[in-house]
Amino acid sequence: MGGPWLLDRSGLDQTALPWGPECGVRTGSDTVGLTLDEARRATTAVALEAGGAEAGTAGADTAGIDPAVLDLLREGPADDAGPVLSCRAAPATGLAAEELTESGLTPRAERVRTAMAEVFGEQSLGGFEPGGVSDGHGSDSAHYDGRAIDVFYRPVDEENRRAGWLLAHWLVAHAEELDLAVVIFDDRIWSTRFSQGGWRDYRSADFDNDILQHRDHVHVDVQRGGDG
C-alpha cells in the first residue's frame, strides 16, 4: 500500500485506489484492502444490522473481515460522517440501451431499486414517476432517461448523513454487479468510469442548496447502454 502521504502528493482523495486491492476502507492513517466480495459482504452486513437484522441473517456473512473495517462502515470517520470505502469498477461492455418501464425507470434502474429494497427495506424514493419525468433536474440528467433514483435522508443531520453513507458505500461495492454509473451524496461523487480516483468533491451551481448538493439524498444512476 502506498499510504495516505503518497495520495496527498499525487493530489488524489484519501479514498482513491489507483493501485492495490479492488476495494479499500480508509482508516485514520492507512487503508485496509478488501476484495470485492469482502466489500459487498461487509456493506451488506452493516446495512442489514442498521435495519435491525440479527447476526447470522442471510447476506450478513462477515467471516474473515477485520472488525475494524465493519466499525468504520457502521460509524464513518471519527470526526465527521463521510466516505470511508471505495472500490475500483469498470463500465460494462455490450449493454443495450433501454426504454422506460411502467414505473418510469429502465429495467436496469428497476433492478437497482429491487436490490436496495432487499437490503435496506422501505426507502423514501424519488426522481422518477410513471411516464417519466421532464423537469426538476439538470438538462443532461439521467433522471429524464429513467436511469436514476434518489433516496432521501431528511432532515440533513448527522444521523441521516451516516445512514446515507451506509447506502452510498453499499452501492459502490455493488456497482459492477448492478451496472451503476454514478453515486452522489453529501457533496461527494463516485463514478464507475473514474473509480480509481475514489470519492471526489461534487459542486453544483449553488453550493448552499442541500438538494443540488445531494446532502439530503443519495443519487444513483445506471449506465446508459447502447452507444452512450
Number of DSSP strand runs: 9
What global shape is seen? globular
SSE pattern, N- to C-terminal: HEEHHEHEEHEEEE
Compute the number of structural domains: 1
Largest sheet: 6 strands, antiparallel
Measured between the Cα atoms of the first and last residue, the distance is: 35 Å
The stretches of 5 or more residues where confidence is low (pLDDT under 50) are 1-11
Tell me the β content: 15-25%
Radius of gyration: 17 Å
Taking all residues together, what is the mean pLDDT? 89
Please count the helical segments: 5
Strand order of the largest sheet: 4-5-9-6-7-8
The secondary-structure class comes to alpha+beta
Please bin the fraction of helical residues. Answer: 25-40%
Protein name: ARB-07466-like C-terminal domain-containing protein
Organism: Marinitenerispora sediminis
Pfam family, one: VldE
Domain ARB-07466-like C-terminal: 102-204
Topology, element by element:
Blueprint: H1 4-10, E1 23-26, E2 31-34, H2 36-50, H3 67-75, E3 85-87, H4 107-120, E4 125-126, E5 148-152, H5 158-173, E6 180-185, E7 188-191, E8 200-201, E9 217-222
Antiparallel strand pairs: 1-2, 1-3, 4-5, 5-9, 6-7, 6-9, 7-8
Helix pairs in contact: 2-3, 2-5
Protein name: ARB-07466-like C-terminal domain-containing protein
Domain ARB-07466-like C-terminal: 102-204
Organism: Marinitenerispora sediminis
Tell me about this structure:
- This is ARB-07466-like C-terminal domain-containing protein.
- Residues 102-204 form the ARB-07466-like C-terminal domain.
- This protein is α+β, with helices and mostly antiparallel strands and 228 residues long.
- It has helices at residues 4-10, 36-50, 67-75, 107-120, 158-173, and strands at residues 23-26, 31-34, 85-87, 125-126, 148-152, 180-185, 188-191, 200-201, 217-222.
- Helix 2 crosses helix 3.
